[in-house]
Amino acid sequence: MAGNSFGKLFKLTTFGESHGEAIGGIIDGCPAGLELDVEKVQQEMQRRKPGQSAIVTQRKEPDTVKFLSGLFEGKTTGTPIGFVIENANQKSNDYSHIKDVYRPSHADYTYDQKYGNRDYRGGGRSSARETACRVAAGAVAKQLLENIKITAYTSAVGSIQLQKKFEDLNLEEIEKNPVRCPDPETAANMETLIREIRSQGDTVGGVVECVIQGVPVGLGEPVFDKLHAALGAAMLSINAVKGFEYGSGFAGAALKGSEHNDLFNTDGSTKTNFSGGIQGGISNGMDIVFRVAFKPVATLMQKQETINSEGELVEMQGKGRHDPCVVPRAIPIVEAMAALVLADYYLLNRNSRL
Amino acid sequence: MAGNSFGKLFKLTTFGESHGEAIGGIIDGCPAGLELDVEKVQQEMQRRKPGQSAIVTQRKEPDTVKFLSGLFEGKTTGTPIGFVIENANQKSNDYSHIKDVYRPSHADYTYDQKYGNRDYRGGGRSSARETACRVAAGAVAKQLLENIKITAYTSAVGSIQLQKKFEDLNLEEIEKNPVRCPDPETAANMETLIREIRSQGDTVGGVVECVIQGVPVGLGEPVFDKLHAALGAAMLSINAVKGFEYGSGFAGAALKGSEHNDLFNTDGSTKTNFSGGIQGGISNGMDIVFRVAFKPVATLMQKQETINSEGELVEMQGKGRHDPCVVPRAIPIVEAMAALVLADYYLLNRNSRL
Amino acid sequence: MAGNSFGKLFKLTTFGESHGEAIGGIIDGCPAGLELDVEKVQQEMQRRKPGQSAIVTQRKEPDTVKFLSGLFEGKTTGTPIGFVIENANQKSNDYSHIKDVYRPSHADYTYDQKYGNRDYRGGGRSSARETACRVAAGAVAKQLLENIKITAYTSAVGSIQLQKKFEDLNLEEIEKNPVRCPDPETAANMETLIREIRSQGDTVGGVVECVIQGVPVGLGEPVFDKLHAALGAAMLSINAVKGFEYGSGFAGAALKGSEHNDLFNTDGSTKTNFSGGIQGGISNGMDIVFRVAFKPVATLMQKQETINSEGELVEMQGKGRHDPCVVPRAIPIVEAMAALVLADYYLLNRNSRL
Amino acid sequence: MAGNSFGKLFKLTTFGESHGEAIGGIIDGCPAGLELDVEKVQQEMQRRKPGQSAIVTQRKEPDTVKFLSGLFEGKTTGTPIGFVIENANQKSNDYSHIKDVYRPSHADYTYDQKYGNRDYRGGGRSSARETACRVAAGAVAKQLLENIKITAYTSAVGSIQLQKKFEDLNLEEIEKNPVRCPDPETAANMETLIREIRSQGDTVGGVVECVIQGVPVGLGEPVFDKLHAALGAAMLSINAVKGFEYGSGFAGAALKGSEHNDLFNTDGSTKTNFSGGIQGGISNGMDIVFRVAFKPVATLMQKQETINSEGELVEMQGKGRHDPCVVPRAIPIVEAMAALVLADYYLLNRNSRL
């Protein structure tokens, strides 16, 4: 109820702050009999972890997932999968300068007001470190969904936008550049921009696009639990996300019905995909396509005026090792959350019919 | 689990199809002792109901909410509030022409594939008629939130966009025009566009903006159940919604941190509100601002090619009484869903501290 | 959360007080495609309804279930099944004599203290009238479980106990006597006792035994959601229940392991059934057997001393039409709750394996 | 959904098998600001742990609870409390003799049938080792309920029953004998019986009684979530439990209403307590009293005939270190589960009224 669980039948509950001994989680509801490739889980962790390239935070965390239960002889047993990830590099002293200060556009102020306490050593549960657990669990979910392929990539950094359409992209390129944009030229421009922004002690936002292929028809519930509502909630629960749209999205609001309707082929597929793979909240078998907007990281390496917990104006300057742009490392998180949603809805859908 | 409930502590469960005898719902978790003004509930129903103006569907439904339980001597008793709304005007024959036809960009195909059956008489649970129950329950939630003011309005119809900012709007104007746009001139242009579109047998999309004033600091949970994630899920669960953004939204993704950070005043309020009233998933006391994109209604009064349940290409033409633009009637639905989220998070937040 | 829902995947939510216009409920999660025999549902209602024999309350309620949604052409559609049951015979004046009085061993005092209000016209949600909704929903659940046979019967009234074992009983006898005891001789004695007790203005308790045949192996979860824990919670949620035991029950606590262990036959069945059909919280395919203790009805037709809401001692005498023994009418309620549990666990178990 | 969570607002989720590296859990929903005495948590662990006396299993487990999150400077932060308990003494080889054998009246057969796999090294999730996590979490819940005192004790071992009533007991005696019976003489007899039974390679059942003092009026919900239904489910979820009764229990079923009704004192307390502190599912401020029946442990140190996974009859003999009677070590588990229920209902009740 306090909001640390995600999903209904394939359910992840997480715990941990960035500066405790470890973070971790429990996956409850993974069916028995899944051969789990633990190495693949760790590969997803590498995609998210800090220090992986020159344009992300240089903190060092090995982010090794240790599974404590729910696996036996290489397979899931149907019982809860508990796991922990050590916080190897806590460096609490990085945060002493902000102990009594509310950083602008962070959760410091709201968190303190809500709970009457604040773990100033790194944002408590508001730290993006928590997303490491999501990536671990999402990697399990991905393996449950063996015929479904989830691919996210950077589609905008600041005002540089990827112009090509999904059909024209070479997805093999995504992991070849640190920005994770599938168009090499655009990727290079984005990387240059991020380096410039960082040299100014500033940060910049961006957009992630995600395409899910191979989804069977029928996932999603027609009323409150529409598939895109669950995907939206999942994405909006990621740190720094400001918006979510699927299919035609906000641009679709400007169209006429005669332009926007997706006409059928005789096999039930559609000639266009303004619907983004979901009609009436239920997957229609076409590619699911959505976009997620991320704000610029709030921690700047510049001086900013702010207030302290006494309500006094003070000047602060960010220290430590932060991302100038959150988007490249957000790619595996977006994929993980999408996998968690689909695994959950896949299990839910087993009971749609007798 | 099958997705017909919304909320955790203030929980609405709904039932009913557009062509049964009645639809209805149960609100479980409304605290005892709330003086409920039933007349105000009915006023909200009038704002949503069909036939209220020349630019919406001309179906006639009285949409009278009949409360069956949970009230005694004018107050809530703390027990479930059951209510029903009769389907007065079912006109099943309006739908006979689509019995075996999958309408493009509707839920017909996905629904049939999911459940192995289809109530062709109006879309089953995919019908927007279900939202009448949301408006009824939302009107109860609004009364629970007596110091919180939720105001939604039309901010775009097709490519006509409201240019004024919230601070410059006269909210009194909203209910004075059938489009529910607070700027009379823009409203007139929008109305003209809707009439034109309708005369072509076509439809058009739009955008709703919603501002929530008077929210206390502290509503929202820091991880999966961020306040904006719940608002997003709520909005995305409304029929025809394609996108959700709050605060700076998608535009914020193009900004730099130094432009986007909201600097504090000494009282904890902020000088700007790119955060949209929510920081780290928790309300900060500033106005909550979000926008919701609606696609054009899929039912056209034009000929369209489509397929039937045998997979044969057929030609169909919409009949009946449909909205050329869903946005004006969506306003009270957006407000209702926002009220349901806030009521739920208000109760949840009572347990944040000892 | 406020406790008016039961089940996870096959979920019943109920509303309604005994003195409102109607009570009702929503079944969410019944799979599509079930041919529902509405007449059978009504037959279960007849087994529970007041006025059915000389030894139960003489109130008259037709207790007709009206289904409002979720059915189409005789089958479930996979969408929520909403239903209402009118309160035909409210007779609010029967209760005016207890308006300010807390009846001993009723919920009057606790309810008032909890909610700060009390609907004195019949106990509010504490009225056993609410169980009519459970019987209606349970009758749907029974039809989902077509190969499972649930049989409850009276095994004790006061100190008169049914001595025969289940294997020696003729279950056809159950519905042939008003007590619903399958042994005609014992049934006659029980009926005589109830009549005597009633003539004294007194009431008496009893025990219901329930046997469930044809349960597949594998229903139940090994930790918190053991099958017998769910059955226990279900039974203890019925008005007037004081205890629950399954298999060997309390008597099993006095045995030695060498006496109590159920040895296997080679087909996995067991030679004895002290386990009551459940091992480690999971059904083992043997008959599930449990017993439920009901206290004597608290409303007496005798003078009793009690207090009023001012804390003053007053004398009261029950009026109206109450059951001298709740057990005969509790039989279909016990069966209904068992059916709800099994339907839920049947659906849950579909996801135990890949 | 897979049943590894307990509670709604104060929610415990556990993971772990007896033979993995560690077991653990997450408490989600503990309000911020509770000063947590970690030493007291560990004391509860000592009461449950194996090897604590001559009459329990001689396995050695330090059972040290390591808290990983949710605490800062000695207080709860309002965020999830993650904890792990190492499995120090796994001795997997103890179980090799039962690898292919289904032990009678264990979960081996049902577990294997349900999941298609079986972790034979100690029962998987069916192992009572899982209850260590319940005791840890219950110890946190106890500290949240500072004015509520929960006391469980052994009231029967085999056919030896504690004859004294709660009012006549010296609760200080409970922890002074290994049986945890508050009457020294009865305790001695029980201990003698357990030693005898063990010397025969046999086991014996028993009954635990629990009294909860200082409960405020108003905890519990009137319909499905009656307080005693939650307590019953909690107790029935403990390994080896066969029955639950509260207040007058099964004996109450033999009484007349005129004997059973609890007459009021003018302060709302009652002269008798057949109600067991709960009326209409809601606490009435009197002591909550309930009893829990435990079957004899199924693992015998005797030869037994059973079947293997091929369905062949085989002879087996228990090895290893098992409890001859589960009741003494069950006392802290019963208390822990009661504490979890009360903490949950305490938080739920905060929202009963405006």
TrEMBL record, chains A, B, C, D:
Pathway: Metabolic intermediate biosynthesis; chorismate biosynthesis; chorismate from D-erythrose 4-phosphate and phosphoenolpyruvate: step 7/7
Cofactor: FMNH2
Residues bound to FMN: 125-127, 239-240, 280, 295-299, 321
Protein residues bound to NADP(+): 48
Similarity comment: family membership: Belongs to the chorismate synthase family.
Quaternary structure, from the entry: Homotetramer.
Matching NCBIfam families: aroC (TIGR00033), PRK05382.1 (NF003793)
Name under which the protein is recorded: Chorismate synthase
Gene that produces this protein: aroC
